[in-house]
Amino acid sequence: MTPDDFRKEAAARGFEAPIEKSWEAGRVNAMHTHDGALYLLGLAGEMTVVYDDGSPPVVLGPGATVEVPGGVVHEERAGPDGVRFLAAVRG
What we know:
Elements: H1 3-12, E1 19-23, E2 28-32, E3 37-51, E4 58-60, E5 65-68, E6 74-90
Antiparallel strand pairs: 1-6, 2-6, 3-4, 3-5, 3-6
């Protein structure tokens, strides 16, 4: 998915305007939740989203998306080359 397509889809699905973020290699955002849904688009590098409930991890690379529902305990891990991504929230 392109960034423009992501922005259009996010808006159509009621998400706030996406924010571009960059994380250094190996950064970990330890287990946490969000009140509302989180929607991500990979732009460069890689991020792995790990769920506390044992669901399979999701690898986010360039052009890939992942949605984490509100209230779901998860962790985000930047890959060995870091990650650049768009993040949108809803709720």
